[in-house]
Write a structure and sequence with these properties.
Blueprint: E1 2-7, H1 10-23, E2 35-37, E3 41-46, H2 51-56, E4 62-66, H3 67-73, E5 78-82, E6 88-95, E7 107-111, H4 114-123, E8 128-132, H5 139-142, E9 148-153, H6 157-161, E10 164-173, E11 175-179, H7 181-186, H8 188-206
Parallel strand pairs: 1-3, 1-4, 7-8, 7-9
Antiparallel strand pairs: 2-3, 4-11, 5-11, 6-9, 6-10
This protein binds 1-O-pyrophosphono-5-O-phosphono-alpha-D-ribofuranose.
């Protein structure tokens, strides 16, 4: 039995579809249920930001989560496979026409990704004031809370509709299959088996 942590929403849906393709079975959560039991898997529906936590503490053996979230949280889990889904960027955004000037003193950066932001500016020896927000990040530069934002950009529509533009990419993200380190040893055969099956599907899609 493998326990699989999935992030509520589209990624969970897409991952269950991969399992359906592999096993020719139906994998569907009932209405508001958060656990789905099948003969070989137990699926857990968790918040995106909690997937790596479940896996790190071995409440789940494997999980599916975005690389941006993994980089932000820094939990020690095994990154098994890039699922080539949920592709997005983490980028710096500013109001249209504004230029990124790292020499400007006391730059204020609003973000929900504090660690990625900190690392980016530290690596460039730029001291910034990071303002942690939990959502609607694009609002911050519009009302003068921050000079810029570091945020996830997928289609770019949110920035565009709020008069912001990307001035610098920080990283590209996509969804990863991750594993708990102990589970990877204790349940190696099962984990490698599902890894290989998923990998075949991803590879076929890339052709
Ligand atoms: C992200 C991000 C942007 C938006 C970007 O939020 O914070 O607001 O998506 O997408 P776009 O480039 O396609 O417009 P998300 O929807 O992940 O919600 P969250 O703030 O709850 O994490």
């Amino acid at each position: 039995m493998l326990t699989v942590a999935l992030p509520k929403g589209r990624i969970a849906q897409e991952t269950l579809e991969i399992f359906e393709t592999i096993f020719g079975d139906s994998f569907k959560f009932d209405d508001r249920k958060l656990i789905l039991e099948t003969p070989n898997f137990r699926f857990l529906l968790v918040r995106n930001q909690d997937v790596a936590t479940y896996v790190y503490h071995q409440a789940a053996d494997i999980g599916v989560v975005g690389l941006d979230t993994l980089e932000e949280q820094g939990l020690d889990v095994i990154r098994l496979l890039d699922l080539k889904r949920g592709i997005c960027k983490v980028a710096i955004g500013m109001r249209n026409g504004e230029k990124l000037d790292l020499d400007k003193p006391e730059l204020k950066v609003a973000t929900k990704m504090v660690n990625i932001t900190k690392r980016y500016f530290e690596e460039r020896a730029v001291s910034v004031d990071i303002i942690k927000l939990y959502g609607s990040i694009e609002l911050a530069p519009l009302i003068g809370l921050a000079d810029m934002i570091v945020d996830v950009v997928e289609t770019g529509a949110t920035m565009k509709q709020n008069g912001l533009e990307v001035v610098q990419d920080i990283m590209t993200s996509s969804t990863y299959l991750i594993a708990n380190k102990n589970s990877y040893i204790a349940k190696k055969d099962k984990i490698l088996d599902i890894y290989e099956k998923i990998n075949e599907i991803i590879k076929a899609e890339q052709k």
